[in-house]
Design brief:
Rossmann fold; Arc Repressor Mutant, subunit A; five-stranded parallel sheet; single chain; 660 residues; alpha/beta; Four Helix Bundle (Hemerythrin (Met), subunit A)
Length: 660
């Protein structure tokens, strides 16, 4: 599958290209809309990913031009504007889907897979099958008779190309267009060598029948299945061979056959290089914004300089959120909003710009934040900022009297215009909206929708005079964090908001113990979690678990299910029996996360299950989510919700794992 990625922000483009390449896509990159238009017109792509705010030709205009030219390739747009109007504009221009910045790479990959399934090129069964040979696009894995075939990314892409076009003769130039980018500039001899390598790899995996047939003078095609099937475990009782089938379970020792531990080191090194380039871009963009603020303080900023500074703040907001700086992203967004004003900035707006930039620099001096809600920037002992929207004056008055005693400062507003002005001055810690207060319920719901689209991390408490399930569901769908039935006292409102604030014990100070007899898995977990401020303790010998647990006293346990002497399920049962450690969040790791395994995890008291090979973003998200829950509420050791859950296996950067 070939994807055109048009994104002007280099670190974001590098990060997306890295993960898309790891997911076995061939990536062509462009940094502006004009170049993207030329590439899209010249070459054939299976999907295009377009950023909205790109130079020379913006993403929306590029999308319109492509559709006007009759190009029907699926288009996914990336936008930092989460409002309904901007999203509708993109979809009306011809885009098939959108992702708002900051985004999770896993979300982008899931949207891409969905678009490819929806399009003509991606239809069919989830797995592409030729006899006993199976290519699973979801796992980016090739198997033969249930055993993994260790293919290179280019070999994988070539096999996928043939399996998706079974009746088509593919010339060498066509294969070059699908598998290589313009920067690679390979010759047709590269195609010949690649076909030879794929044939040899399949032969070494036990295939006696050639999959690829040479059509002399024209190219290659997928060979027809033999009329008489070879004896295999997949043959039917009547001797017929099924057209497609799911691969049989592989033996554990074969699952990661051919995995190269050096690949993990190379992947980590590449990710670090991408992060380093992003850090360098942060410094450059901050300097542009800082220079603009200095000019404003000294005199008048010309429109061109203001536009450039606004664009840099826009790119900062998107990039910071993508790389884990959630609070920094919010602050950059406020700077962008202030610089977007058409009228000249007054002294109060300039002061707000300067103060927000200072807070942004302080935030960026800390490690990247988790995917969870960021800590307040008001400082230790400072009052939390609470904004009320359309709340009855009597309750606002009560809140104003009670708030200082609980370290809150209350600002009462009637509309979103006032909220924008407040957010430009200080960070907001929570918002209270009354559905049946001074504005109609429909308008109040609009407040909630807009707030959650702009800043989904700000906690919002919704007041309502109706204890109605339908209304509760609507609030939940819009992202409301708490629902409180009126009449309610000021104490009830503030008490309901308290659990939504970041814990006094930051997640970044938490300690995670990973228990796995495979040192590579332990090292991989450490490399993935350490950048998020977590301390990881590795244990390779489960027989020493109890001693290490008492010495370490971790905040979360990661236990491998398959270990000698004592399995992960044994250790989980032991922990749940102990009054001291029974409340700890426990995440299990298993190479075969099937239904039986999932039920077993919940039966012994596990909180979650992570499949092997470990997928970086999935591990980080699940660990941080469990730590946040543990910080925000009292442990409920006796309550379990044993429900079977399946998680999509995103083909992101995979960690090599060699089970024993």
């Amino acid at each position: 599958m070939k994807v055109l990625l048009v994104e002007d922000d280099r670190p974001t483009r590098d990060l997306l290209a890295y993960h898309l390449t790891a997911a076995r896509y061939t990536i062509e990159q462009a940094a502006d809309g004009v170049t993207g238009l030329e590439l899209a017109t010249l070459l054939t792509y299976d999907l295009m990913v377009l950023d909205v705010q790109i130079p020379r030709l913006d993403g929306i205009s590029l999308c319109r031009k492509l559709r006007n030219q009759g190009i029907t390739t699926p288009i996914l747009i990336l936008t930092a504007y989460g409002s309904e109007d901007s999203i509708i504009t993109g979809l009306d221009a011809g885009a098939d889907d959108y992702v708002t910045k900051p985004f999770e790479v896993s979300q982008v990959l899931a949207r891409i897979r969905a678009l490819l399934r929806r399009g003509d090129r991606g239809q069919g069964v989830p797995s592409l099958v030729w006899g006993d040979l199976c290519l699973d696009p979801a796992l980016a894995e090739v198997t033969y008779q249930g055993r993994t075939v260790p293919v290179t990314p280019k070999e994988y892409s070539l096999l996928e190309l043939f399996l998706r076009h079974p009746q088509q003769v593919l010339s060498r130039s066509t294969i070059l267009d699908h598998l290589w980018t313009l920067d690679d500039s390979p010759t047709e001899g590269a195609v010949t060598n690649l076909v030879k390598d794929l044939r040899n790899q399949l032969k070494r995996s036990g295939m006696t029948e050639s999959v690829i047939q040479t059509v002399y003078g024209l190219g290659y095609r997928l060979k027809d299945l033999p009329a008489t099937p070879q004896p295999s475990s997949s043959s039917q009782p009547d001797g017929s061979t099924p057209v497609s089938h799911a691969p049989s379970p592989a033996a554990p020792e074969d699952i990661h056959q051919g995995a190269d531990p050096s690949n993990t080191v190379a992947q980590i090194g590449e990710l670090k290089a991408i992060a380093a380039r992003f850090q360098a871009s942060i410094r450059q963009r901050l300097m542009v914004v800082e220079d603009a603020i200095r000019v404003l303080q000294a005199g008048v900023l010309n429109p061109q300089q203001q536009t450039i500074a606004c664009e840099e703040a826009h790119r900062l907001a998107g990039g910071l959120g993508t790389f884990g700086y959630n609070t920094g992203s919010m602050l950059a967004r406020r700077i962008e909003q202030l610089l977007q004003q058409n009228q000249p900035l007054d002294s109060s707006a300039i002061d707000a710009l300067s103060a927000t930039l200072l807070k942004l620099k302080q935030t960026l001096a800390a490690p990247p934040q988790s995917l969870t809600r960021a800590e307040p920037l008001t400082g230790t002992g400072a009052a939390h900022q609470l904004v009320t929207l359309a709340v009855a004056p009597s309750l606002v008055e009560q809140l104003g009297q009670s708030a200082p005693n609980q370290h809150w400062q209350v600002t009462a507003l009637d509309n979103l215009d006032g909220l924008d002005q407040v957010m430009a001055r200080v960070p907001i810690d929570a918002i209270v909206i009354d559905l049946h207060g001074s504005v109609p319920a429909g308008e109040a719901f609009g407040f909630l929708r807009t707030i959650k689209q702009r800043d989904p991390e700000i906690p919002v408490l919704v007041l309502s005079s109706n204890d109605c399930l339908a209304e509760r569901v609507q609030v939940a769908r819009l992202g409301g964090d708490r629902y409180l039935v009126t009449p309610a006292t000021a104490a009830q409102v503030l008490d309901s908001l308290e659990p939504l604030l970041p814990s006094s014990c930051p997640i970044s100070q938490s300690q995670v113990m990973v228990v796995d007899n495979d040192p590579m898995t332990c090292a991989a977990v450490t490399n993935l979690l350490t950048p998020w401020g977590l301390e990881v303790v590795e244990l390779n010998h489960p027989t020493q678990f109890w001693t290490a647990l008492h010495q370490t006293q971790p905040n979360l346990l990661l236990l491998s299910m398959e270990m000698p002497t004592f399995s992960g399920t044994d250790l989980c049962r032991v922990v749940r029996q102990d009054p001291r450690f029974g409340h700890l969040p426990i995440l299990m790791m298993a190479a075969h996360p099937d239904t039986v395994t999932i039920h077993q995890v919940f039966e012994v008291g596990g909180d979650d299950l992570i499949g092997k090979p470990i997928i970086g973003p999935e591990l980080v998200t699940r660990v941080l989510s469990r730590l946040e829950r543990n910080h925000l509420r009292q442990p409920l050791a006796c309550i379990r919700q044993p429900q079977a859950m399946f998680w999509p296996q995103f083909a992101l950067h995979r960690v090599a794992h060699a089970p024993t």
